[in-house]
Amino acid sequence: MSYAERLPLIMEKIPRLFGEPGTVLYIGANTKWFHLGPQLYKAGHEITVVEIWPSYIEDIEQHPIRKFMAHLVQGDVREIDEVALPHDRFDWAIWNHGPEHVAREELGPTVLKLEALARKAVVLGCPWGRVPHGSWRGNPHARHLSYLYPEDFAAMGYETACIPPVDVAGGHILAWKYMEDIPE
User: Fold this and answer.
1) Is residue 77 over pLDDT 50?
2) What is the tens place of the pLDDT at every residue in 15-62?
3) Which CATH number fits the domain 3-178, given the four candidates 1.10.260.40, 3.30.530.20, 3.40.50.150, 3.20.20.105?
4) CA 41, CA 92: separation in Å to the nearest integer?
5) Mean predicted confidence (pLDDT) in 156-178
6) CA-angle at 119, arms to 72 and 2, nearest 5°
7) Closest to 114 in 3D by CA, of 145, 158, 70, 151
8) Phi, psi (5° rounding) for residue 133?
9) 178-182 — which CB contacts under 8 Å span 24+ positions?
């Protein structure tokens, strides 16, 4: 299913993301995967992208998508609490096309770090189920290390929706959690 087909569901399930502009911490982007960037920019967000792979950063610097990013920072989401970011906290933390790239045992601790940085919500997205993927353009971080399912995110307190419907390997999981109950 294409991004154009996913966007209506994201807008339906997380309307505040497009109606409450602020600061966005966007984990992992390259010239192929930055689908929400233009929409977030259009909604008035200041977007900080954190990307682990140096050559992706070089590619982004020369690509038209760079205009949507206020800040582009090299760093590892697993160590996001040690990355030099332009803000101490962000309104929104988005890790789309990313949770599948960390080992299952790293997922929970990494998501908790994102929750600590987000005032309004954390939004996650990844392939549904077993979708093997190796390195891409020499990037060893592009490998899929975890095969995730909606219940993995539900167990962390996230609401989920699947695109296309559940039980379709290769579909997409959208997960989100509002942070109002987390003190400033």
Assistant:
1) yes
2) 999 998 999 999 988 887 788 899 999 999 999 999 998 998 999 999
3) 3.40.50.150
4) 13
5) 83
6) 60
7) 158
8) -155, 130
9) 178/16, 178/120, 178/121, 179/115, 179/118, 179/119, 179/120, 179/121, 179/122, 180/120, 182/115, 182/116
pLDDT per position as a tens digit, 165-174: 566 666 888 9
9 contacts: CB under 8 Å, gap ≥ 6: 161, 163, 174
Residue from 48, 90, 43, 40 nearest 70 by CA: 48
Q: Tokens 């602020």 sit at which residue? A: 22
What share of the chain in percent tops pLDDT 70? 83
- Paired tokens of 68: 């949507």
Residue identified by tokens 């259009």 is 42
The residues, ordered by sequence, that sit 6+ positions from 2 with a Cβ below 8 Å of its Cβ are none
Tokens 């200041």 belong to: 46
* pLDDT at residue 145 tops 50: yes
49: closest CA among 71, 68, 34?
Answer: 71
The pLDDT of residue 58: 94
Residue 13 to residue 131: CA distance in whole angstroms: 24
Both tokens of residue 22? 């602020």
